[in-house]
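Quick illustration, no need to memorize.
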Amino acid sequence: MDLANRRKLTMADIHSAADRLRNWGRWGPQDELGTLNHTTPEDIVAAARLVTKGTVISLALPFDSRGPQGAKSNYPSLGRFNPIHLMVRTGTDAYAGRLEGRGISTTEDVIIMPLQCGTQWDGLSHVLFENQMWNGYDCRNVSSFGADKCGIEKARHKMVGRGVLLDVARLLNTDALEDGFAITSEILDKAEQFAGTPIRRGDYILVRTGQMEQKLRDKNWDGYPGGDAPGLAFDTLDWLQAKQVAAIATDTFAVEVRPNNSGDIVSPFHWISIPIMGLTLGEIFKLDELAADCAADGRYEFMFVAPVLPFTGAVASPTNPLAIK
């Protein structure tokens, strides 16, 4: 659906959705995991049974200086940059004899990077709704020392289960959806039918728009970080709630459609998904290889393993998601 045919969202719509979709207390007053609770041990065992050919596909964009954060961005104030890789001990040092006397020659390196500069999970402390965060926790639980509540490390044993690829670009017979194209609940229904497997409670859904592939073909990330993009329409929040998914990820910078047709309300989908529903969002996932494999064997379900790095108090985490078939 294009922008011209979408009704403008208002703050009344935001508050109505918050009232309708609020999951606070659903898993107890102390919960810090949200919809990740939908996935049970039995679901993980069933997901493991999907592995039949031993194919492992990484869904991560390389973490290097060629990532999207060096491009022109609509969000320069976020201060995100591509990873900075520093070598502190090299083979050249060893060859020059600078490491003698240590008993062993090694190479060592350091990475400096924002936790959301590449393929990553948004944690439940990342987005606030007014003065509260997920499960009604006071926003002041996130201080300069990190998140006392809903830090990303709380999810260190999650992000494992059945994954399902909803290949919207292939469904609509296009290499990449146009910027501003809103993926509605109706389109998700069609993508689910196209995949040939119903979405179940506890699934991890991956939505392919083709935008990342287009940027990689063009060798130009301009506009990708925070710019216009295809993505999920606001109405899909109800769809995701009804399906009881564990998490959703896309090949775009921010999951939701941009522009979002909401005036001064920035990222309305995020306002509801993370702090109200407790829905974890995955961003900047590289889905081209998985899409090709699913199209080739006709199987759009797989075991999905994408753990966070347990940085204590962090509000997000890089990840190397794996689809295992």
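The longest strand covers residues 160-167.
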